[in-house]
Amino acid sequence: MATELWNAVDEYFSRALVKPDPALDAALEASAKARLRAINVAPNQGKFLHLLAKINGARRILEIGTLGGYSAIWLARALPEDGSLVSLEANPDYADVARGNLAAAGLSGKVSVLTGLAAESLEELIRSGTPPFDFIFIDADKSSYPDYLRLTLQLSRPGTVIVADNVVRSGRLGDPNNREPDIIGIRSFFQMLATTPEADSTAIQTVGAKGWDGFSITIVSASQTATGS
Predict the structure, then answer these.
(1) What average pLDDT values come out for the chain (229 residues) when binned by 10 residues?
(2) Among 138, 107, 104, which residue's Cα sits nearest to residue 121?
(3) pTM of structure
(4) Which CATH superfamily is domain 2-220 in?
(5) Sign of CA dihedral 64, 147, 51, 31
(6) Distance in angstroms (rounded) separating the CA atoms of residues 206 and 111
């Protein structure tokens, strides 16, 4: 019964506040046809990310975990004309689907999808002196969240916003006896947030079409570089 109500409320929010969008619908259809898992953010969550990036005035966005490009479309649409988004995807087949969806949405000129293990791609961005990002969205393998945080802090500046998805895991995070790799990774991620002076953070739980989960949100108060200065 609770799940039915969660879904009904999400559907109400989406009908009321998220306008029908052929490009986003096509991205979901193409992802389903390619047999990608339906683990993209919900429409109202996509718009939430879009609004956060706009509030932040983001000109450069980094996304970890592209999947079929659904959230990348939402985020890229928050950018100004000269803005850019870099999205990291480990699976080359998923990356191809995402590139097709982004092209169909008219966003190929703003979004670059890089393939390879995300930690390695982040390290290469640091080595190459990539300018800091204004907004960072982490939505990939949860066991690696601590590594992603450590590396994205080096690609941040004062005022960078870092949002991480799926940090509640249907409440399993609250079970002290749970030793799943994903839960261990998320606990370590939160411990890093709590002990990193540069990170001013909180987290919220969410319920809806994607079940019981949540986001963390961080504002970076002092930038780090690849050299730690």
Answers:
(1) 87 93 96 94 96 98 98 98 97 97 97 98 98 98 97 98 95 92 96 96 92 95 51
(2) 138
(3) 0.94
(4) Vaccinia Virus protein VP39 (3.40.50.150)
(5) positive
(6) 28
